[in-house]
Amino acid sequence: MTVLKTSLRNFLAHKGRMALSAVAVLLSVAFVCGTLVFTDTVNATFDKLFATTSADITVKPKDAGNSDNNAGSPPSTLPAATVGTIAAEPGVKNALGVASSTQVTLVDPRTNKNIGPTSGAPTIASNWTVTPNAALKLTSGRAPQGPSQALLDADTANKAHLGIGDEVKVMSAYGTFTQKITGIATFQTTNPGAAMVFLDTPTAQRELLGHSGVFSSVEAYGDGSRTNDQLKARAMTALGGGYQVQTKAEAAAENKSSVGSFLNVMKDSMLGFAGIAVLVGIFLIVNTFSMLVAQRTREIGLMRAIGASRRQVNRSVLVEAVLLGVLGSALGIAGGIGIAVGLMRLMNGMGMHLDTSELTVKWSTPVAGAVIGVLVTLVSAYLPARRAAKISPMAALRDAGGGQEAGRSTVPRSVIGLLLTGAGAASLVAAGAAKAAGTGSVYLAFGVLLTLVGFIVIGPLLAAGVVRVLGTVTLRPFGPVGRMAQRNALRNPRRTGATAAALMIGLALVSGLSVVGSSMVASADEQIDKSVGADFIISTDSGAFTPDVVKAVKGTAGLGHVTEYKDLPVVLTLPDGTKAKKPLSATDPTYADDLRVPVVSGQVKDAYTEGGMTVGETFAHDHGLKLGSTLTAAFPGGRTAQLRIDAVTSKNTSFDQGAMYVGLDTVRRYVPRELVPQDVMLFATAADHKNPQSAYDGLKAAVRDFPQVQVRDQADYKKLLRDQLGQLLNLVYGLVGLAIIVAVLGVVNTLALSVVERTREIGLMRAIGLSRRQLRRMIRLESVVIALFGAVIGLGLGMGWGTAAQKLLALRGLGTLAIPWSTIVTVFVGAAVVGLLAALAPAFRASRMNVLSAIATD
């Protein structure tokens, strides 16, 4: 009880000094809890959506997955008679046919703009059916009852400012048609972000599936006399082969799996960055407790002199850590809920509608937050607590400032740090020299970990050298004040190293990712210049082109040629008898000129002769294939063909790596016309290569009525790649910013405690003539040089990581190393600004000290 009272008294006495450490715990716990609450809420919301909207049993064609995996393939369908077959089964109350497609685009005819979701969610067109547990309910108007009527979901209608009586243009794989909106339906549960348009059944069959008398699936509902498993068994018996039947639970699990894959990536990424924040927070807390122990050396010595045991002193410091962890965790858990709400609102802004009233906080979330917060502070305070317990009463009574910590030998630590750093550097070199991506990734992971730990351990040794050099270069113009700032930073290399290490971690990640990102962009630009022969690349948001788009592109004046590109699912029988389900890239022969794919043997153009094809280098190696090998290809529709390998394409490319090419003539010969896929890409060249602008303008004009289609020249394509990578890096930089914020708090905390530690010294300097302005400048310069030290080692370490990662990416064709010097210099200057800002409050506090009171401080 005495230990607890002492710890509580000390904690409250130093509550201001503990505040910044508590913020570090708060941020770390908040990020973890916010991530868990957000993902749990989304999972629970979608579980509810799928559980309430799935039919008791759902019947689909057996090959329904093919159309999803290969854009442009004709939709898999089942005969309309299937509805009657299922409805006649005992225990089935009713059965409904569904005709739907996701390869559609919704366009506002008034603006000719795509009104579909921009968040990556699909646009879904379907026939309107009334089911017991429908996801949407008709809330105004009436259901579509003819070939020119449609019903729109309320969210899409509100976003596009459309209402009953307005028109909407629907572009499907089979053409473009305009519908009048006769009704609006509202989601009864969460809107997953999709845009939905409903048609009457005959129109949906004709325009979405290609012809009447078919459905994409059948949904059946039981009368309660049989279980869903029994209904499934009866349906499978009645239908025979060629169908897949799912129960309500199975359909919900499949839908949940597709959503869960995205959420798991998001969850793991956010928790990874939360872990970085936790690691950075450890340095802050270690520094805080180390300095507090050093400042309370005399107090601890008195406790030991009057009978306190080492265990009691150790326990006293650890109890303070627990109090800090509990307080920071409690605030962090509350902050995590706030972060989760913010993430939900962000997703709402992207088109997904998550209701904060359904916020899900599982019992495990606050427990995890509390455990993390308390463990972090306990682990961080353990070494300072042991150090406090070892203080001799007599030594403490003779010591006035706790300088023992600074004087401890760093030789063993430096040796360990050098060994770890050397091992890490060797791993990074091995990663760069690896011939296989899997092996190289393992080396890279070990190299990053070992060099990070090595630099942290070797921090005091680096501080002694790097800070001296930085001080000489940057602080010389400030005269004696600059020299004093440098000496203050060098006074305790351990403390300086730990403070800078927190900043180092964040900046190492920033510079490493910058090198990787810049190298990827530079490599892609080089690959485009070297490999892409086409002047124009035409793509679509809907997955595949409609025939009228292809006709418009081919009819554009000023083009030399237009190359069609289709994806086709086939089953290949290899020479050893094994089978492999693979997509073939079916193109015109001109594709060999549009994309100059490197080969290890043969020539791509030979694959466009009768019976020819290409395979990727990896596929050929894995299956023992070579030039001239023959494969049996089973095409959609049941026909087979013997295909000869006329070229093996290299794996050292970033475009179409591993793709298998076959001529369109071969596809048209073996695939029934109605099963030939739509084009997923188009490539074109200008007839006048010296002046392609006219053809470029013509293409833009030709697809003006198709907002889902984009025409890009090579410059546009390069910009697209840069923009996509830039958005990803900006998101990562934002998350890394959390760790940098914690690191900045560490600098503030170190300086604030350092000012308290040097109270008498500051008073003496003021007494002999140091002005308040000079004192503030000295503390600011000390902060700047510490921040610059962290920036130097962080940026250097990050560039080493990025260089090793780029060498690994070279195995996938990204062989250009690009160091983003502008970013590196900006970050370095930014570190100086961060150091300057971090010192403002401690410097102001130091300058406000009463000189006589400071001198009298013991």
What does this entry look like structurally?
This protein has 858 residues and is an alpha+beta fold. It contains 29 helices and 25 strands. Strands 16, 17, 18, 19, 20, 21, 22, 23, 24 and 25 form a ten-stranded mixed beta sheet that branches. Helix 8 packs parallel to helix 11 (364-389), helix 8 (248-295) packs parallel to helix 24 and helix 16 packs across helix 26.
Distance between the termini: 30 Å
Class by helix and strand content?
alpha+beta
Radius of gyration: 34 Å
* Major sheet attributes: 10 strands, mixed
Number of strands: 25
| Residues in helix, % | 55-70%
Instruction: Write down the overall mean pLDDT.
Output: 83
Task: Extract low-pLDDT stretches.
Answer: 399-407
Shape: globular
| Strand proportion | 15-25%
Supply the number of helical segments.
Answer: 29
Organism: Streptantibioticus rubrisoli
Family: Belongs to the ABC-4 integral membrane protein family.
Protein name: FtsX-like permease family protein
Pfam families: FtsX (PF02687), MacB_PCD (PF12704)
Labels describing this entry:
single chain; alpha+beta; 9-stranded mixed β-sheet; 58% helix; globular
